[in-house]
Amino acid sequence: MNNLCVAHRGFSSIAPENTMAAFLMAMERPEVQWMELDVQLSRDGVPVVIHDFTVDRTTNGKGLVRETDWADLQRLDAGAWKNRSYKGERIPALSELLDRSCGRVRLNIELKTQGDMYPGLPAAVIHEVRKRHMQNDVVITSFEPAALIEVKKLAPEIQTGLIIDARPGDLLTALRQMNCTFLSIEYTNVDKSLMNEMRSAGIRVMAWTVDDKTIMKKLAAVDPELMLCTNRPDVWELAFQETSSRFFRP
């Protein structure tokens, strides 16, 4: 089992998702070579790491991310909802995570947007990535094709990827039209035919989100190049150890 382990929103099964606590915990794990995160814009244009369009679920605040200034987002507690021991964790700026992860792990940066909700989001993320010369250390992904097209227009050197939760018949055509070289797909849609098709087209595939050890091993058996996105890097490690022991038992 050589499949790359991608920590979904950091080590989010233990620490509060998309916080520095979760990301730092993930980076301490030798099996984690990639991390996935979600980025939106504050009202004053700061790229911030948070999944939901509102702050309601993962902080002690209320309201839309895009209607809240960065100074106000910084004041919110983004940890106590998960566990009292994480009280005081904050919503990170993308810049902070890039600074801490540079040279340690690669990043799957999801542009969290719908339609024209965040017209300045691609440019803002690209600015932070280029500022740190991390173009080769990231892939920028989104459910929103227009956002990916904008990324390639502004930064053709950065890898982009489409996120989907189904498998349309014209998938490869769509990926080629957007110049995507990465596919992030819900794991139940992965099989050998998909992997063969994507490999032939030079497209890397990541399956999300897999926390079950048995499913991890089944997916690993489909293709060793399939990346596995998980909230549980510790379960990935168990799956790896069990698979390795089966092949290398004396």
Automatic annotation (TrEMBL):
PROSITE patterns per record: GP_PDE
Asked if the Swiss-Prot or TrEMBL record annotates the protein with the keyword Hydrolase, the reply is: yes
Q: Give the enzyme class.
A: hydrolase
Q: Which residues form the GP-PDE domain?
A: 3-240
Question: Is Hydrolase included in the keywords of this UniProt record?
Answer: yes
Q: What are the UniProt keywords, alphabetically?
A: Hydrolase
Domain of life, per UniProt, equals Bacteria
Name used for this protein in its record: Glycerophosphoryl diester phosphodiesterase
Q: What is its EC number?
A: 3.1.4.46
Q: Which InterPro entries match?
A: GP_PDE_dom, PLC-like_Pdiesterase_TIM-brl
- Annotated Gene Ontology MF terms? glycerophosphodiester phosphodiesterase activity
A Pfam family of the record is GDPD
